[in-house]
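Ticket #4471: structure export looks truncated?
Reporter: QA, pipeline team
Priority: medium

Steps to reproduce: submit the single chain below to the structure queue and open the exported record.
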Amino acid sequence: MSDHTKTAVGGTATAVPPAAADPARERARLVRRQRRSRWDIKLSPYLYVSPFFILFLIVGLYPLVYTGFLSLFGWDRWAYHRGGFLGLDNYRFVLTDPIFLKSLVNTFTIFLMSSVPQVVIAVAVAALLDTRLRFRTFWRMSVLLPFVVAPTAVVLIFGSLFADQSGLINQCLASLNAHGLHFIHPVPWHSNRWASQLAISGMVNWRWTGYNTLIFLAAMQAVPRDLYESAAIDGAGRVRQFFSVTLPMIRPTMIFIIITSTIGGLQIFTEPRLFDDTVAREGGANHEYMTTTLYIYVRGIKEQMYGRASAAAWLLFMIIVAIALLNFGITRFLTRRSAA
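Actual output as written to the record:
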């Protein structure tokens, strides 16, 4: 008869209690449960982030590797198929191409005029927004408005400001010249190399500064307030607290912003492409503001020289990696020195 069978004792039905479980079996089950719990703690974070890396392998790493493979071959643009193996000839052509070298210089100048002021201004604005301002929510939302605007709309807005003939800025400069300030003249924004790069840098700064500001603000709000109170007790003012407490505490965020700004700044394409008012749209009549990504576009899409375009893309990739590592080292050095 089963342990769970009811038995009549003294005319009443009583339930016989089940037999005690096997202690060895219980211990084995507990060990299996603890083992599953440990594996869950170890593996679940990787499972959560795995979709990104799987997607990156498909749409990111594969095109990167194939671009490097393609840079070693020629390309028959009439037959639309890969040509013979050329080795490093495509790299030699690109490195000796004066247009590529000019585009590389333009890329670095636009990057320095956009990314460096962008990070500095973003940190300063975030520090102001971290104080007890009135209507703080309004100010924090307003800094993100330029980022919401589409890049094409940004270029149209700045194109009307920096137009050579009918632009608002040149009209103001012409008005000042007419009122006695004869040393002020309208600027040829599309034909002058430095003026055009300054205009493009202004577009980039206007669009991305607010986005980086909110990231810095989130990092600053995560800094424990006890540190500021301790610094104030020690006699540190607001400026000293900013350099000794805020900057060291937001160092990981700053490294992230600098690296992403470097990657984005060295891959500028939309702004110079749409800012150009010439028929060819290759960064000015004399390539005054052609960037390296625009050079890759011209060589690959317009001229269908995919091997040379791939070589230029890989050179840009290696430059970005080198600059990102350099930025990482410099940022860590500066933050450690400011904290000392």
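Status: closed, not a bug. The export was complete when the record was re-opened. Leaving a note from the reviewer for reference: The chain has two domains: 2-70, 91-339.
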